[in-house]
Amino acid sequence: MRIQRLNTSAAELHEIDQNYSRYNQKHNIFIRLFWDEEIKRLEHARQKNAEQYSKDNKPGYSKFDKAFLAGTMNFMREKIVQNIHICDQEFNAWNGEKGTKEEGMDIFTLTKAIKKAAKMYGACAVGIAPLDRRWVYSHWYDLQTRQSYPIQFSDEAPEYNRIQEPTLLENKVRVIPASMKTAIVMLFEMDPGCLKYSPTLLPYANGRFVYSEMCLTTNSLAGLIRELGYNAIPSVNCTALNIPLAIDAGLGQIGRNGKLINPYLGTRIRIAKVITDLPLDCDQPIDFGVNEFCEACRKCARKCPAGAIPSDSKVCSGMDELSNDGYLRWAIDHKKCFCYWSECGTNCNICITVCSYNRGYKWTKSILNSSKESSTLVDNLLDSLDDCGPDVFDPEASFWLNS
Questions:
Q1: 67 CB contacts (<8 Å, ≥6 apart)?
Q2: Alpha carbon distance 298, 271 (integer Å)
């Protein structure tokens, strides 16, 4: 199956219905770390287990591995959580000094230049999406007050009409100008060599380092846009949902494991974005067979040690309050997932590591093409691909001695 560009949207592809509402960031598992006692206990156990595994010199948790993790976090240290998950912090500020706006720029040329600049700043792939407000969080979480406050747009209330820049009001409501209709979405690749050692400290550390790169890249791109005289909101995991924006930006499809799958980078990616009013040409969603492939291939579900990934078909309801109702997808049990994180002392990454799309789009495409002859045969083949993807952690192999 070739990569097809679709004249549609993530909302249509995932059959958004009347039960869908904008997601309150308060319910995100990482924000729950600040107020949910159950999640706090699991996080405490996760840190304790990681420390014990390191003391025991468990493979993948050695003193050097632990030091490697510490080094990847040295750039932002204690600020990394805030700058990833909480909006308008030091490295993702909603406002900054602006240059003089130049009107009449050629949009085609500007779009190509912005994409190239984003890659030069550190992104591996870039797409442009129209900002569907349904993907913007209904509320943001304030670490100081430990409360949630609305995110609204300037055309949603008469008193906001004159707001022309991203604004935090005295009542803690954040207002985004209605002119900010575009999201520049970027993908960042995780190291496949580290991922093979999931669920140890190695891929966890690599992911942390990638996140620090994402903060730097989004901050730099926002600075470029402001110098051109336009608004820019840099964001990693704050402000809006990443995956539907990435789908709308033509960067991939969502897989059974709940991750974005890119035809060239597979699932070994992290997503960030910059929301802006800079005039740009938008990309279109793509289809390269992920739905058909994942329907037959259940490898991530079988390999998930927590049993958090479903083996059955898509549904429109979430497992619990951590996820929204009202859109079609394979529903992940996020609490089961986080319970295993607590046990292994990291963020696992096994479902990312074992995904067959990490072998490249051409490999999965050849399997899909075969399905035209015998879907049952291919389904059985896909369901038994235990050894065809990247290897999971081999305790006998040393990551640091491999060239």
A1: none
A2: 24
Contact 250, 285 (CB under 8 A): yes
Q: With a cut of 70, say whether residue 151 has pLDDT above it.
A: yes
Q: Would you place residue 93 in the very low, low, confident or very high pLDDT band (cuts 50, 70, 90)?
A: very high
Locate 118 and state its tokens: 């984003």
Q: What is the pLDDT of residue 367?
A: 64
Q: What is the pTM of this model?
A: 0.94
ω into 199 cis (within 30 of 0): yes
Spatial distance between the Cα atoms of 110 and 127, rounded to a whole number of angstroms: 13
**Tokens at 211, concatenated:** 């996140």
CA distance 77 to 44: 18
Q: Which of 342, 344, 340, 322 is nearest to 331 (CA)?
A: 322
Query: Counting Cβ atoms within 10 Å, is residue 218 exposed (0-12), middle (13-18) or buried (19+)?
Result: buried
Q: Are 306 and 339 in contact (CB under 8 A)?
A: yes
For the segment 103-119, the average pLDDT, to the nearest whole number, is 96
Instruction: Judge whether 258 and 330 are in contact, CB under 8 Å.
Output: yes
Which residues, in sequence order, are bridge partners of residue 168? Answer: 174
State both tokens at 256: 């059974």
